[in-house]
Amino acid sequence: MSKEQVHSFRYERDILLFLVFSTFKTKTMFGLFGKSKRKKEIKSTFKEYGYEIQKFRIDGYGEIDFANWLHPFNRPIHLGTSEVNFYKSLAPEGSMIIDIGTYTGDTTVPMALAVGKSGIVLGLEPNPYVYKILEKNSELNPDYTNIVPLPFAATEEDGEYVFNYSDASFCNGGFLSQIKNRKHKHNYELKVQGRNFQKFLNENYADRLSQLSLLKVDAEGYDKDILNGLSDLISTYRPNIMAECYKRLTKEEREDLYDAMAKHNYTVYMNDTHYLSDGFVDTAKRVKLTKDTMSIKKHFEIIAIPN
């Protein structure tokens, strides 16, 4: 091959590569643009989504069914033995768990497996669209679980409240008007029912409260208000507590969240090694929190253990 032919070949090759790359880049850009446009359409358009039943194999239980919400912004969950063992370390069989901010039941189901058929899990979810999924999950696995779904939020007084959500189909949200940071970008409003939960428990579950072993709250920044509203419950029955330090809380709100647990003589941990196969263990891996270290991370889960 002559020198001229070599140069011609390289030139044609470079042109071909350029065209291929340009086509790929153009398709990629249009693909990303299309995805972004589609995401905006989904976010701004209301649609009620159903569910599909998934099966998970868990040691000691065999196949467990779970209704997974088909909302496109919902992250599919995985149920495994480690999740169940984690809750077993915090709540013995036959005991009571309260799950506030239940969502689809992704924490409620492994909790219910942990305490068994003789135990009970109360799951609060005020969003009527996701509540239907929780209700379905409460009906599945009847040989192993006892889940009571409750369609309201834990609030100071009984009544109707406005929650804020991130999309028109109400996937993720909460009582965000109660936090100081208004830049939460949850602009879709939904009217929900709220109940004074301490009063509700005293009227309906007074005979089971002595068995309360775990109180979990996940309320998008409203956790401290719920915990303070259940102060008598916590001081009397001293359950283990799980909560969330929401990413948009101010320093003062983070300190208030810490106080809502620590004031009852609890040790407060960052729950950064959440699901361990051997359950909750107080080791060097567990970061003990103080009021001054509540800003150690932007967003994290908390576990508090009574002393």
Explain what this protein looks like in three dimensions.
- The strands form three sheets. Strands 5-4-3-10-11-14-12-13 form an eight-stranded mixed beta sheet, with helices on both faces.
- Helices cover 34% and strands 25% of the residues.
- The chain is α/β, with parallel strands linked by helices.
- Helix 4 links the parallel strand 4 and strand 5.
Distance between the termini: 85 Å
Give me the strand/helix succession: HEEHEHEHEEEEEHEHHEHEEE
- The number of helices is 8
- The parts where pLDDT drops under 50 for at least 5 residues are none
The order of strands across the largest sheet is 5-4-3-10-11-14-12-13
Overall pLDDT: 85
What is the C-level CATH assignment?
Answer: Alpha Beta
Residues in β-strands, percent: 25-35%
Brief description of this entry?
With 307 residues, this protein is an alpha/beta fold. The protein has helices at residues 3-44, 81-88, 108-115, 128-139, 197-204, 223-229, 231-237, 251-262, and strands at residues 51-58, 62-69, 96-100, 120-124, 147-150, 153-155, 159-165, 173-174, 188-196, 212-217, 240-245, 266-270, 287-288, 300-306.
